[in-house]
Structures are given as C-alpha cells and as structure tokens.
Design goal:
heterotrimer, A alpha/beta, B mainly alpha, C mainly alpha, B: MetI-like fold, 14 helices, C: mainly alpha, MetI-like fold, two-stranded antiparallel ribbon, 1% strand
Amino acid sequence: MRIRSSFGYVVVALLVVLSVAFSADEPVMAQGKTITLSMLAGYKEDVLRASLPDFEKKTGIKVVVDAAPFGDLYKKQLLSLSTGAGRYDVVFVDEPWIPPLSEFLLPLNERMKTLDLPDFIPTTVAAGAFNGTQYAVPVDPNVQLLVYRKDLFEAKGLKPPATWDELIADAKAFHDPSKQQYGIAVTASSDIQTALYMLLAIWSYGGELVDVNGRGALNSAAGKKGGEMFLELLKYTPPNVKSYNFADVNKAIQLGQAAMAIQWASGARPMEDKTRSSVAGKLGYAQVPKAVRQTPMRGVWTLAIAKNSTNQDAAWQFATWLSGKDFGTAAVKYPSATSAIHSPRYSVLKDTGTKAALPYADALLDSLQITKERPRLREYADIQENLRVTAGKLTAGELTLEAALKEIDAGTNRILGK
Amino acid sequence: MKPTRLRAILTCLALVPVLLWTLFPIYWITTASFKTELTLYAKPPQWLFTPILDNYTRVLTNIPFVQYLKNSLIIAIGTTLGSLVLGTLAGYGFARFRFRASEAVRFLVLVTRMAPRMVLVVPYYLMMQRLGLLDTYTGLLVAYISFALPFSIWLLIGFFVDVPLDVEEAAMIDGCSRLGVLLRIVIPIAAPGLVVAAIFAFLVSWNEFLFALILSGVEAKTLPVVIAGLNTDAGPLYGEMSAAAVMVMLPNIVMTLALQRYLVRGLTLGAVKG
Amino acid sequence: MAAGRAGRWFLLPGLVFLFAIDLIPLAYSAWVSFYNWWLIRPRDVRFVGLANYTRMADDPEFTRAVVVTTLFTVGAVLLEFLVGLLLALLFAQPLKFLGPIRVLLLLPLFVVPVVGATMWRVIFHPEVGVLNHYLAAIGLGPLPWLSEPRLALVSITLVDAWRTIPFMFLVIYAGLEVLPAELFEAAAVDGASAWQSFRHITVPLLTYIMLLAVLIRGMDAFREFDIIFVLTGGGPGTATQTIQILNYRAFGLGHMGEANAIGIVTLIIVAVLCFVLMRAVLRPQAAR
C-alpha cells in the first residue's frame, strides 16, 4: 500500500517537473529591438548591469546578457560564432581573440568614423583591429604596471626603479626572507602570467616573440638576456612562487610580504581594498621599468559585433554607448572592490573624479600611450599556449633557458607552418 | 553483548580523525563566508572573529541567486526522477532477463561514461542547437539524465540481483504482474540502492559545470556556473564563493536528511518477513 | 531466467535513451577525430585519417600525461576505496550514535568542486595557510604543497580523496545494509569470528558493489579535471598535467580533431582497463 501511493507521488512529481520544464521553454526575446551579449562574468558584468537600464531607457533596445567565467568565455564565443549558431549579436572579447575570431565579426571601418576618435587613446583603438580592418571598439584597456610600497621606499630613501637593473637592485635591497619580506611578487608557475612576465623582460631587452618574417625569434641575444634577467628577478620573490597565479601576486602585496609587484592594472583595486589588503593606501604605481626599451604589455577588452547578427544597427548603438564617455565615467566610479572597467578615453582617465577613484590612473594613462602588443596572428592562442607551457617548464627546472627559448621558437615555427 | 561498549569506544576513536579531516574544510569554507579576506588569510589563523554578513548580501544582491537556485533545483530533481525511473526499469530488466548479448550491452552502457566529458560538448551543443534546446531546462535534463543513468543502472542491477527470487516467484504465483513485483517487493528491499542512485543523480546534476556553461547561459543558468563566475579575472572572490557554496550545500543536506532513513536495514526485513 | 517478452519493455526506455543521447555523440566524436578541424577555420576541415593519433603517440607530453593520470588514478582510487570500505564497516555496526553522523560524512560531496578546490588552495597556502601554520608550529613544516612537483601530485590526490571518500562510503554502506542479517547471525552461532564473517560472507556478496564503486571511481578519477585545474593548473611544470588537462587545452584552442582523438584514446584505455578488471573479479564468481 505504502509503495503504491509513493509511486503515485513519484509520477505526479515527474509530471510536475516536466510540465514546468516545458513551460519554461518559451523564448523570452521580443522581436527586433533585442540584442544578446556574450559578456565576462564577475565585476565587469556588475558594472555593466548597473548602467544598462540607462541604455535601455535611452534607446529602447533590450540587452540580454549571457555571462561566462573568464576561463571559458573564449570557448563559448568561439563555439557559437564558428558553428554559426547565432546566439550572440555582440561579444565582449579580449584583444588576443580578435585575429582568430575576425572572420566571424563585422568590419567596422565605416562605422568607426561616427565616433569621436581623438578622445580615444590610439593604442586602445589599435587593439580592436586586425590586418587593417577594425573589428571591435575598445571598452576596457588594461596594461602591466609596476606596483610598489611607497612607505618602504621612502623609508629607505629610494625612488621606484626606472630600469631593469634598478628593479633587480631594489628587489635585492628589500629581500629579507627571515622577516618574511620579499623583494618582488611575480609568478613562476605554469600559469600564463609567468610567460607574460618573461615576455615582458625579453621585450624590454629588444627581443621579439615572432619576427617580421613570421618566424620564432625568442632565441636571440636579446631573448637570452631578457630571460636571464627574469630568472635573476625570481631570486627575490616569495618562496613557493612556483604555484602562484594572478591572485597570489595580489595576495603577496595585500599581506605586506612583497615590496613590489608587476601586475596588470586590473589587479590594483584588490590591493587597495581595506577588507582584503593590509597595505591599502600605501601603494605607488609606476610604469614598468625599461632596459633597451619600455614595453608595458597591453590587454584591451573590446566589443565586437557578430557578422551574422540580425540587429547590426542596435548592436552598433550598444557599442557606441559602451565605449562612450557616460558609461566610462560611471564605470570607473562604480564601487566594486574587485576591480574596475578603465575607459579608453583621455577625457575619462584625465578626469579628477577618475583619479580619485583609481589611484593608478596616471600610471595607467602614461603606460597606455607606450604599450606593446602581442603578435596579431590568428594562431596566437596556440603560440601563447606553447609559450606558457615552456615557461612553466623553465621555472620548474625541467629545461634550461637555452633549451626553453629554442623550444618556444620551434613551437612557434611549427604552428605558423614555417 | 559485552564487546559493544569496547566497540563503541574504538569506533569513536577511529571516527575522530576521519571527521576532523572530512569536516575541517567545510568548516573553513563556512567560516570564510563570514570573514573578510584579510581575516581569512590572517596569520595566525583566526578561530574567533567577528562575523560579517557582507559576503552573503553581496552574493544575493549582485546575482539573481534565487532564480538560479530555482533552475538548479528543477533540473536536479528532474534528473533524479528521470534517472531513477529509467534506471530502475533497465536495472530490473538486466537483473532478471538475461539474453545472449546481456553482458555486452551492459558494458556498452558503461562505455558512455568512459570518455572525457569535454569530448561530448560539441556534439551535445550541435544536437541541442538543432533541436532548439539550447538554454532550456529540457536540454540540460536530457544531458544530465544521460550522465547519471549508467551508474544508476549498474548500481541497481547489483541491488536487484540480491533480492531473493523465491519472494518474487511467490508473489507472481499469487497473481502479481512483473511490474507489480518490481514496485511492491523489489524496490522496498533494494531501497538503499535507490537512495544511493537518487543522491548520486542529484549530485551529478547539482554540481555539474561544463555542460551547464556551454548549453545554457541566461534562462537555464545553474548555480555552478554562477559560482565559477566568482572566479574573476582579477582573482577569486573567496568570501562570496564561500557564501554561495554554503547556500548551495543546503538543499543537498535537506535532500539527504530526507532520504537517509531509507538507507537503513529496517525496511528490508519487514518486506521479506511479510 | 529466460528472456521473456516483458524483459524488452523494462530495458528499452533506458537503453534507447542512453544510446541515442550518448553513443551517437561518441560516434560523432570518433568521426571528428579523423579530421583536422580548427574552429577558427571552419571551412578548412580536412580528412587526415590517423594523423591526430600518431601525433599523440609521438608526443612525449602525452606520454607523460598518461603516466601522471595513471599515478593519480591508482593512488586516489586505492586510498578512497580502502578508507571508504573501512568507514562503511564502521558504520554498519548497530551503534545508535552513528545515525546522525552519517550525513556529516557526506558533506564534502555537497560542496561544488571548484569551491572545494579553491578553499583547499587557501588551506595549502605556503605562508599563511592553516595547514602550514600548524605544521610549522610542531616542527614538520612548512611544506610546499602545490609548488613541489611530487608533493603537488600528492596534494591533488588528497583533495580528490577528501571529496570522494564519502561517495565510496555511501555505495559500500548501502551494499552492506542490504545483506541479510540472518547470514551473519547464523555465522556467529557457528562460532565464526568477525574477520571470518567478513572474509567469507561480506566480501563475496559485496564484490559486485565494491567492484562497481572502484570502476566508477576509477573512470571518474581518470577524467578528473576541475580539482586539478584549480589547484595546480597542471603545474608545477608538467608535474600534474593529466590527459584531461591536455584535452582541455586542445579544446580551448579550438582544435577539435586533436581534442577528440585524445578523448577517444582515453575511452579506449579506460574501456580496456575496466574490461580486464571486470573479467578478473567477476569471472571467478559463481554465475548468478
């Protein structure tokens, strides 16, 4: 008896669940003025959502936001765009993804003329272009900065390092493991940041990842010098830097362990957050040091339009707004403790309100003018992946510097079919 | 019955390290949800601290948490029921009806779980897209039931086979149909197996991330995707992640508490004697 | 029992569903593995036969990944099985206080893997992590949990065990609960010791369940991804780079042919191992 009635309940429950499931399948989109955006989940999404109602009210366009975590956003976008699934009208893309995605994106050269281009930092606009065609508008520029403890430097009467030699000397000066004080925080793990640090060092000494003929060029005198300097720098880092990632670099600063760090501007806000950082307010920001040249790495988040979008005009309106001054100003001031969206516009970055909200605004603006971009190639993701793995093997001691540089170049050549 | 006292003490002693090891991270996550990040990383570790509710409020206000909770619940319950029904039927079929290709087909059922899940992502994506099931409950339900089913079937085969045949035969002689035997006699005896299958199916669906990420995005978005989103490009938000994880744990605990009395021996004796 | 017509109706719904939803995509995946399909060049798809497979065989990184995956799987499954079995036996005793504790034991299963692994990263933190703090206090530490290659492998095994021992416990415990009490009572009357009872009654009857638990766990450990990725990302170097991580990388770059080839090879390896294990354990058993 009991089992029979229980079975009845099971059947009823199953029917209820199925009916709810089917009834919830009704698509929500209205016709015409709705666009779907593939967005980065997290604080950037929060900033966007805060301002979105303004956009929707002003233009009558509804924006459906499909947010995915950082590690998976590219995959999701690639899958949809490549298979022609047509799920997105606009996509929020990190600049290295633009070359591979370019054939699925709408060229914007003509439309760009309607923007007030002089207000945009030129390097940020370049981030959205590939092979002479503009595929995306810049929304959120990011760049590598040097972060340092103003208080510690003042106590020793030192100025922040301007060259790589000074960088290593200063790191050595502050390095005191017995007191759990370390010179500088970077990563030496198999995380992508390790490869990017090494690349920054090699760039600074004049090396290149890919030369003008499209061949791997890391194994050169400059490459060796830069690599050596990077490995030298690792001597003055916290122990266990071999398991560090982006967040751990922040942690080292936040916990007062490191006197300096090279970190992306997007990592600065957590360092200034009092609930997470014991050194909030004690930090200074400068451009990354130079050797033969000064080459802060650029990473701009941009907005692109899908080529097969059926709402291209609405999409462009959204792109204009997202790279606009109003959104930029609001975004910079949004009270997120995690990070911020840095506008690509001079007017916004020079604004006093912005400087109050972002202590690193000056360093950011200065660095953005002299950035160096990673190779603009469709195959770059593969090249970077090879760089990442090999740099990880180098710092783990599985390879010598010479062998690592050779392996990176071999990989680059193989990928580019040379 | 004298040894029982000694046994109880020894059992306790054995359990202490186990519970410590099992529960400490859970405790750490729970306390982390009430701490600021600075407190979480404090040295020496802080066991006593002033709790804050900020993490919870941030999670609940920034994210339409309740909507995603609803999505996750519906999909998880649907997965559990679907795989229980299909699994019970198939499990009984394999247990009682042998045919020449029995073993091969059974192995084939398991084979579907041997490939890395990533391999199924693109075909599932294309399949759901063609069927118009992207970002719907149905799409995820279909995927998750197919994940939970192989283990459910194999597990239930094991439990059904253990049910004494004479009891079933006696019932059938009394005029009971096969289905009736399954429902009224076999299931009660094998109840612990069904409980495990149910918990397993629920968990598969509840914690699943990859397919929820690819196959949904807006409407049918589930909690694991939301939690993964708290792993931002500027680093993980430990406080919010912990708060979200604690809230996500609760329905599982409720479900297990509800089901766990069926996990015990008592039910089986009653059925056999009856 | 002969295959009555009724049998078909029991089997069909589940099997049809499963084979339609799973086997067809697997076949598709196998088919793709014979092509060179790069998502960023969707019009440049070429048939390459076994090229993806031969490239894998020649790749030392793949071989290393197989070794790492095997080490991890064997270590994890052994640990989880033994501890799970012990716990199940402990809890099968008729002691009243065990009831409420059962749910506590299952808690790690309820934590979303990504969060669990992230929190373990916090616990493992070399300088301010809880673990190293107290290890240093008693003079045993601090240990480089995630930055020393061999220790990193141990760490990911420990975290996986933490998460999955409850599962092994649950499955074996359920199996124990269904064993008829009369058998044990009769054995006790005959003067059998606890160990003899265990060896001659419990083990034979529970073989199927235990084997299933080991198989399922083995398959899952072989394909484990989330925990390893969050804890070490495959590092340091390639110390914890499993086949799944390689697969994830290939897939993330859009190389469908390669990714699927890795997947199919994994499938074959796991299938062979399962088959061998099943034959070895189930054959000696009396035909049921």
